[in-house]
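Re: the pair you flagged

First of the two:
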Amino acid sequence: MEILSGVGAPTGRYCNLARLKTRPTFIPLPKGIKNGLTPRRASPEILLCSPGYPDNFGDAMTQRTTPPFRADHVGSLLRPAELAEARAKAKRSEISPEQLRAVQDECIREAVARQESVGIQAVTDGEFRRDWWHIDFLSGFDGVTLSTGDAYGEAKFKNTDEQPPFMLVTGKIRRTKPSMLDHFKFLKSVAKRTPKFTMPSPAMLHARADRASLKKTYPDLDEFWEDLTRAYREEIADLYKAGCRYLQIDDTTIAMMGDPKVQEQFKKLGDDPRKDNAMYAEAVNAAIRDVPEDMTVAIHTCRGNFKSTWLASGSYDFVAETVFKRLEVDAFFLEYDTDRAGGFEPLRHVPKGKTVVLGLVSSKVPDLEKKDDLKRRIEAAAKYVPLEDLCLSPQCGFSSTHHGNKLTAEDQWRKLGLVLEVSKSVWG
């Protein structure tokens, strides 16, 4: 059995990653996969009667019973003061790793309980064990090391001098030990609701790592993707065995590629940004190729989130037709909290039956959005994606790095409460 790859080609969860070509190319599927080709089941829903709100969009709404949920969130939460203090002490070797873990455990227990008390169905560990949302996970693989310096060009966070460390690919990528499996196991042990695990997209290593080191270690880019996506499949397989049924892949390249400055930065590296879009989508597809039918896979994208700053501006027009149609995920979490994201028109490219989680509530500012404004924006998005295929969330996490955004913990919980309240008003 073969699949068609290349520009304009159909894709599937079980497709191979292939070098992007200007003409379609047939690539054989791995042995044993053929019999596993089945359409993914739609998320079951319960039909509810309209609660009678005068501004409801229809006479009957549905409440989702599997993820993503009508009221959802991206994942990271502001670090409690005691956790930030323990992290600083651990960096100075004033407390042991075991002592730090004990503080993390207790803070995660409290964060999970608070999420559940707010009424959010999907709960996370707040990424409390991470310093950086993407770097900590990727550096858990053999072959990825960290350094400091200026490797990002124009793709920097605005209005701040501090930038993340950058990744070097100094050896062949292997998963000789789990990267964050223990993180999920602990989360599941304390969660009463659906535990959600987040990980960066494999695209983030190619997009954000030092390109010279990557090329030196991997002269053949296909080998790089084969090694990296194999490591992802191994991690995801163990997460599934541990009980994970809700996985979110975070990928800033989707949203950021709409910014001409970011496109120019990739061109300076010798890339074609449009081909990178397709290549990154196929990397994600390869990473989730073996995901069982009862695991929901969502992808989240934003334009950067670091101490309430951002990396890029631009609509989804540049990527929508390629990325929305190619990615074999169940749902898209999309940043839409400011004008920097553009309009909802690109959502017309989202395939029928896929879910779009509208990131309309800002995790960057303390000001609470107006409910009527959020409802109007949901109604506007429903012109391009059916209302039954929409959900609501903040545009990103509240603390993608250990620093956190510029709002308080109470602001954070009010924002999540607002998401829940508006979702109930719209969908029942």
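Second of the two:
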Amino acid sequence: MQQDMNEKQNRLNRYVRGWLILGLVLVFGQILIGGVTRLTGSGLSITKWEIITGTLPPMTTEAWEQEFALYKETPQYALINDGMSLSEFKFIYFWEYLHRLWARWMGLVFLIPFLIFWRKGMLSGRLIRQLCILVGLAAVTASFGWIMVASGLIERPWVNAYKLSTHLLLGFSVFLYLLHILVGAIWPHGVGPSRSKHHRNLVALLSLLVFQIFLGGMMSGMKAGFAYPTWPDMHGAWMPAMLGDVSHWTVENFVDYDETGFMVALVQFMHRITAYLLIIIGLRYYIRYRTAHVSPWYDRIHTLWIILLIIQVTLGILTLLGFQRGMPVALGSAHQMVALLLVSTLVVQWTWIMEARRSPRSVQVDEVGSVGQDTMR
């Protein structure tokens, strides 16, 4: 009887794990679609935020004409896309519509199984609290997404770069917090070291990477790649001359960044310098802890970190050079998603360390199934 009950509990736990993994896949897809939406200039094609009525796209020619007419009233159409055909409008509308529709799918995929699992008592109190935080974070991300879009519908032809970067970080946060929940559920006792120094080094590296991702969002929002699409120099100089002129360091240039080229130069310069720092510090971090042999799983993630770092740096250079031929949508999207995977490796390591420090015992595992009975306490 007891064996049957344990097998039933393990089966239910697998369902919950599968649900969380599906959620990760959907959030990953949403971030990818959001990146393509931004890089194709599609984010301002839908000028209203209709949570329910906006579920269906225009179904008739008249409905399409009405949507197109609304878009024609935006600064983006007047200043950049004047003369755009209806078929071209449908292309950019598709990406923004898919971005919003995908968000609705994620809501349904979360809500319905959550109610079922909660009703059957398959969710621990800790997991329920974590999922409530996740819902709040997702709601803030969605709401800020509309705030971001609204910033490009009145006075400027593009969304505000600061708001875009914030929205990007919020989207990353939803994915990373869900990943943290999943990893903590699968390895409830951690498989990482509990040493404070290792933890401090990891947090410092993670903080630098988050700052770099914010700068990446600023690069995209300002379309800064078009200004200096060369490497390793910036149009023949290691640092643009205007950055050395103190007269440019004004509040107005930081706020009204699209009035001059100062912020574009500063953001791209900082993005490059931070990348070089990440290479040096990230390589040192890898070398320092690669022989720790805490557990097979920890060693694999630690190795994956350095592999993804090399790939990310390469993609960054290729994306920058790609601006010489126009907007590099494919490279830019890949650069964004590898950044998400890169920061994910650090979040997984951080979660393992935190679980090991929280738990009275640290479990080192070779396979997920070896702690199957403890996955959902």
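The radius of gyration is 23 Å.

-B.
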